What we know:
By secondary structure, this protein is α+β, with helices and mostly antiparallel strands. It has helices at 13-25, 38-42, 76-81, 106-120; strands at 3-7, 53-58, 61-69, 91-97. It has a single domain, classed as Aminopeptidase (3-Layer(aba) Sandwich), CATH 3.40.630.30.
Amino acid sequence: MNLTYKKIQEKEKDQLFNLINIVLGGLDNQEYFIPYEQWEIDSMFDEKNYAPLYGAYEGDKLVGMAQLYVSQDMLADFKKEFGLENYTVCELGGNLVLPEYRGNGITTKLQTIELELAKKIRI
């Protein structure tokens, strides 16, 4: 399997939403995943104020995704809970991989990419 990893482009929105629908629709226990709210879907490609979005591709097919949540307003409750109000924080999340591609280290690779990005972010 030859996978590439890169930022998901807005022109790939249909593939992204297809991936989300397949993965979330196939969960045995829906309550284990917090569903996306409409404002999150509307903000998917606002990487500066919401969450840079990276994907794993086999050829042109999007097979996995991850987000690095950077919105300090969205993360305010976490910051307060952990006493980090004076810090810039990020959250690694939004990890989804098509069922037939699981077990290939896709989430690990995407998280590594986003962790490196988090180290460089200045908000």
